[in-house]
Each structure stands twice: as C-alpha cells, then as structure tokens.
Design brief:
disordered C terminus, Chorismate lyase, 10 strands, alpha+beta, Arc Repressor Mutant, subunit A, transcription regulation, HTH gntR-type domain-containing protein, DNA binding, elongated, UTRA, six-stranded antiparallel beta sheet, Tscrpt_reg_HTH_GntR
Length: 253
C-alpha cells in the first residue's frame, strides 16, 4: 500500500491538518480499504516530510475519529465500517452486519438445558427461581470475522418451542424476535475490557476495550430472555434518535 504524494495544502492549514485530511480522503475514497494494513509510522513520516511525533499525533487523531485501529505488535489498520445499534430498539444483529456491507453468519459455541443458578441473576436482574433454563453461547460473524459474542438465557416456559431449536444456523435472538412476543425490555450498556477467554473468541488482545450490552425482556410478567452481547469497541457504536417531544411518549428508532 502506498500513499500518493499530495503536497498541495489549503491556505493556513498545518502539516498535521494536511496529513489527517489526506489519509482520511484515502480511506473514504477507497484507496485504503477497510481492514488493510497501512505503512508504518516511520515510513509515512518520511513520505510526508514530517517528524515521527507529528505523524504519531495525526494517526492518533484518525484512530479517535474511527478511521484507523492501532494495536501494539499488529500495527495500524483501516477500521471496518462501524455497525450501529439503536439504543432503544431491539435490533437484529443480522441487520447490523448486513447494513455495514458484510456477509453475516452465526456460529453456535455451546448449548445446554440446565437448572437455573444464582449466577443467572447477572443476566436476569433477579434470581431465576428453580425452573430449567436454556443456556446458549455463540459468535456473530461479519465476513467470517468475530463481530459479537452472545451469551443468552431463555425461559422455555415463556418461549415455547425454544428447546426444540438447535440454533446451529439461526441465532437465538433472531428466532425470538420472530416467534415470541414481549412487552417489557431493559438495556444496560457499559465499556468493559475483554477477559482472556473473551479475547480469544473475539480475536482481540487481552484487555481490549469492548462494548457490553445486557438486555432483558419480559412477557406477561414472566422473564423471556436475558442476553449479554459483547462487541469489539473499535467496530461498534450506539445511536439514538429523539426529538423535543420524546418525553411525551415512546421513543422509536
């Protein structure tokens, strides 16, 4: 990958501004496609005729803006288009991936029916009682690259037919959206660092920043499902649309 020699700068712009604008244009115009490795910092500094410190600051700004992903040892890459989730709506992850222009696939990692445990309260918000639960874990993939790690509990009594699904190809969230009505939902969103096990599944460095969404849904007073979605932080963002009358009624995305 090479950087074209673009020496013309807008009047009054600094070298830093020029570099940021130039590299941003290379990415937006498709000269440097998503996922591609860019030249090393020292090489870019030489091409643009600036110090390594100036180049480092320019690349740092582009990383903060979401155009680049910088990781120790693996260098700097052009970021994938960020997928978006609505903060209020319950989105289908298939749509999140496809809307970013990538191919979607779900890979089931584990599935078991077991007795409810006290630790399940982390996903459900309260002790689940003594009923059996369906526990699932799987990876949502974008162009066969890990996109989201899902850990889910389903109440078989509220989600009739769930235990009969193998979820080998169809993700449980997609099945629930189509098969099970719900009346109440809650979200909790926070930033977390990937554990060693999570980092391995998501192909990330241990401790990498991730976006965690914990969602719970109910129907007729009974819990239907609780899910923890873990996204690599560099590839995902949340959006919310609202207006001045949002407080007068339900928010829709």
């Amino acid at each position: 990958m090479s950087a074209p020699d673009r020496t013309v700068r807008a009047k009054g712009s600094t070298r830093h501004d020029h570099i940021v604008e130039d590299i941003r244009s290379l990415i937006v115009d498709g000269c440097w496609p998503p996922g591609s490795q860019i030249p090393v910092e020292t090489e870019l500094a030489e091409r643009y005729g600036v110090s390594r410190m100036t180049m480092n600051k320019a690349l740092g700004q582009l990383a903060r803006e979401g155009f680049l992903v910088r990781r120790k040892k693996s260098g700097t890459q052009v970021a994938q288009p960020r997928a978006e989730s609505a903060v209020v709506a319950i989105a289908d992850i298939r749509d999140e991936v496809r809307n970013s222009g990538r191919a979607y696939r779900f890979h089931l990692l584990a599935r078991r029916v077991r007795a409810a445990r006290e630790e399940d309260a982390l996903l459900l918000g309260s002790p689940p009682g003594r009923a059996e639960v369906l526990w699932l874990q799987g990876l949502h993939l974008a162009d066969d690259h890990p996109f989201c790690l899902e850990t889910r509990l389903i109440n078989p009594e509220a989600a009739e037919g769930a235990t009969g699904q193998d979820f080998g190809d169809l993700a449980p969230g997609a099945w629930l959206l189509e098969a099970v009505p719900w009346s109440v939902a809650s979200h909790r969103v926070r930033a977390v660092n990937a554990t060693a096990a999570e980092a391995r599944l998501l192909a990330l460095p241990v401790g990498e920043a991730c976006l965690e969404i914990v969602r719970r849904t109910q129907a007729a007073g009974a819990w239907v499902t609780g899910v923890r979605l873990l996204y690599p932080g560099s590839e995902h963002q949340l959006v919310a649309n609202f207006g001045p009358e949002a407080g007068d009624g339900p928010v829709r995305s």
